[in-house]
Design a protein that fits this description.
The complex is a heterodimer of chains A (236) and B (155). Chain A is mainly β and 236 residues long. Chain A is 9% helix and 55% strand. Chain B has one domain. The chains are: A mainly beta (236), B mainly beta (155). Chains A and B meet through helix 1 and strand 7 of A and helix 1, strand 7 and strand 8 of B.
């Protein structure tokens, strides 16, 4: 029952950006430009399904050339899993830089049209640490016993991502969007004592690949208006 | 999109530990006959750890091999083998190593057997075949050789 409600909720979140369009004015002569700031709210959904992790993530992008957006992302992941066999805690940060290409905006004469169906690339890195406490080993015959906790151990990881997603201007300067990401690990420091449960910004590192999903709300700061079809650098 | 959501959904379900976390030392019984070893079965075998005579590991069973739980909080385990009301003591000395298995399964203790000694009521000698006792099943670790006259069911 609860599961069904959650999945309905997720489905609506996915569909929402596609609805409510239509009243966009396409007759503007200028194109609004400015940095767009977003927050990833999928962490809230995660929090709901897996209360033992807290994820905060945000990003900023800017259209540096027609249809091409430079983007920087960052976030934090905190995990506290208290289980029968051990308590696992980790904390860390990540950053990503890259670019998105908007396939809806191939023509330069695309005026005040900011919706995106995009593909992009990212390079990501994370610094994080983890530790384990209350380590209980189960033994049928001799009885359960505890071993020494594993103190904090710091690691870092680097990876690349392929991104695909949509981003829709639902109100003036306000965007909703989601993305799907395929991630491939490039290098990772491994703790010889214990596997990492989740790498901030990457996810489960088990196979060196990961599939992740984001849902974000963003706001474009309407800094300047440029002639349509020109980038900021083309001005003057 | 539905596939993505389904995949995402399944990826966030809690995993269960789906492997055995038991690691026991496997002993097999042999008799040396005319210079070659033959498999042997010991009838009515009773085994218990020296420290836990009230908690039998094997209670009057006919066995050609046994699996013994090494004590994970000690460096030495002694097991009493009762055969025809005569007791033999097997002493196994080992080093322990804590290893991470997986997030759902947690940690396990592996053993590295350094030394094994057997008393001589029924037994002749002991031999370590494989000194690593870990979560790999179906590994034989120790051979116990019966003294020829006491072999009950040697082939």
């Amino acid at each position: 029952m609860k599961m069904k409600n959650i999945s309905t909720c997720i489905f609506l979140l996915l569909i929402l950006p596609l609805a409510g369009k239509g009243q966009q004015a396409f007759n503007q002569q200028k194109r609004i430009k400015g940095p767009r700031l977003g927050v990833d709210v999928s962490g809230v959904v995660w929090q709901y399904m897996q209360p033992d992790q807290l994820s905060l993530a945000g990003w900023a992008d800017y259209e540096i050339m027609p249809a091409l957006y430079a983007i920087a992302e960052g976030g934090r992941l905190k995990v506290n899993r208290a289980q029968d066999r051990f308590t696992y805690q980790s904390t860390g940060y990540y950053g990503k830089i890259g670019a998105d290409y908007n396939f809806l905006q191939q023509k330069l004469e695309a005026l005040a049209q900011y919706d995106m169906i995009y593909g992009g690339l990212r390079f990501g890195g994370a610094r994080f640490s983890h530790q384990a406490q209350n380590i209980t080993l189960q033994n049928e015959y001799w009885g359960n016993y505890q071993i020494d906790p594993l103190p904090e151990y710091s690691m870092q990881a680097f990876w690349t991502e392929l991104v695909a997603g949509i981003r829709v201007e639902v109100l003036k300067n306000l965007f909703l969007g989601w993305s799907v990401r395929g991630q491939v690990m490039l290098s990772k420091k491994k703790d010889p004592r214990m596997d990492t449960w989740k790498i901030p910004g990457f996810g489960n590192p088990r196979n060196g690949t990961s599939l992740s999903f984001t849902y974000s709300i963003s706001y474009r700061i309407p800094l300047i208006k440029v002639p349509a079809g020109k980038s900021l650098f083309d001005q003057e | 999109m539905i596939i993505v959501v389904a995949g995402w959904w399944s990826s966030c379900r809690e995993e269960e530990c789906d492997q055995t976390m038991e690691n026991r030392a496997r002993l097999s019984f042999y008799t040396v006959k005319d210079g070659s070893q033959v498999d042997s079965t010991i009838p009515n075998l009773v085994i218990y750890p020296e420290t836990r005579p009230d908690s039998l590991l094997y209670d009057s069973l006919d066995r050609s091999n046994v699996d013994l739980p090494l004590n994970p909080t000690h460096h030495i385990s002694r097991f009493i083998f009762m055969i025809d009301s005569l007791a033999d003591t097997l002493e196994i000395a080992y080093a322990r190593e804590q290893v991470f298995v997986s997030h759902p399964c947690g940690f396990a203790t592996n053993f590295q057997i350094n030394k094994a000694n057997i008393s001589h009521q029924h037994f002749d000698s002991v031999k370590i075949l494989n000194n690593r006792v870990d979560l790999n099943e179906d590994e034989e670790h120790i051979n116990l050789y019966l003294s020829p006259p006491d072999t009950a069911a040697g082939r």
